[in-house]
Amino acid sequence: MPSTELDVLPNSVGFIGLGVMGKPMVVNLATKLPPGSRIHVHDIVVAAVDQLVASFPDTVVKCASAADVTAKSDVIFTMLPEGAHVKSVYLDSRTGILSALSDPSSPQAAKLVIDSSTIDTATSLFVKEQLALSSPTTSFYDAPVSGGVLGAVNGTIAFFLGCSPRDANIPRLTYFLKMMGGKVIPCGGPSLGLAAKLSNNYLSGIITIACSEAMDMGMRAGIDANILASVFAAGTAQNAICDVFNPVPGVCPKAPSSNGYQGGFRVQLMRKDIGLALDMARRLGTRNALGTSGLGVYAAASEAADCKDLDSRVVFRYLGGIENWSEPKL
């Protein structure tokens, strides 16, 4: 990036939503932003805010609301669970981002606002429209991520950016997003980052079920789980779920499955995302032969006492997979 662009980059950043993805993203920003930068944060879970402030007292600043974050920041990121949360954080008349942007008593310079939540495209477009009407100088982008909690912690997540590769803000967007992730992929235009993410998670979720079934099938035939995973890695079945997030405990030591399915991408969120993907498919008229059955698996696993609130790869357990595979069970 030319030095002229670096010279005008803002050093006041905001981040709203400090859950299992948002919190490590802030940690990466705090460790990589230039000295003197400030990150203004807000979350309804006060403990998450306080932990970040304690870890980075010279960089992270606690704020009372999304509006407070917005008033103090030039670039604002949001990472929220669902569309209803996005609407509330952006559009609440007292505490929302829009209330700060449209406050006549507080003249605002042009701001960048980036939403990395995985929500329906209609909500994202509505929020963008409302911001444009009340604050024409504000630029809003959808930029959902892929890579899970491990990727967020390691700074390797991919951002699917809802804009053209020729967008005037690409240099600034890339500068900040690269501090939190490995790849930034402009997907063409508003809401297309979300369309890409929903397509990705639909595929990822279906692959997880297929991987769970195939692993269980091969293991019951007598194949060691590690050998079976290496077969898939060497053949046409190779995929990131099997290689990095294998649903069988012990195959990938750093995967959630090897930690009691703790952490990772909760099974309820996968149910939500596949549901959103199928809603998008219906609107577009596409045929998804595996979608309904896949959604049914995640919906049932989300309600199962031994699967609820755990990583989505717990579908291996839900489908009856052999978790203690060190003791052969044929």
Description:
The chain is an alpha/beta fold and 330 residues long. It has helices spanning 3-7, 22-32, 46-55, 66-72, 83-91, 97-101, 121-134, 148-154, 170-180, 192-220, 225-234, 240-244, 267-284, 291-303, 315-318, and strands at 12-16, 38-42, 60-62, 75-78, 112-115, 139-142, 145-146, 157-161, 181-186. The chain has a 6-stranded parallel beta sheet with strand order 3-2-1-4-5-6, with helices on both faces. It has a 3-stranded mixed beta sheet with strand order 7-8-9. β2 (38-42), α3 and β3 form a beta-alpha-beta unit. It is globular. Its EC number is 1.1.1.31.
Summarize the topology.
Elements: H1 3-7, E1 12-16, H2 22-32, E2 38-42, H3 46-55, E3 60-62, H4 66-72, E4 75-78, H5 83-91, H6 97-101, E5 112-115, H7 121-134, E6 139-142, E7 145-146, H8 148-154, E8 157-161, H9 170-180, E9 181-186, H10 192-220, H11 225-234, H12 240-244, H13 267-284, H14 291-303, H15 315-318
Parallel strand pairs: 1-2, 1-4, 2-3, 4-5, 5-6, 8-9
Antiparallel strand pairs: 7-8
Helix pairs in contact: 2-8, 5-7, 10-13, 13-14
Domain 6-phosphogluconate dehydrogenase NADP-binding: 13-187
Domain 3-hydroxyisobutyrate dehydrogenase-like NAD-binding: 193-317
Protein name: 3-hydroxyisobutyrate dehydrogenase
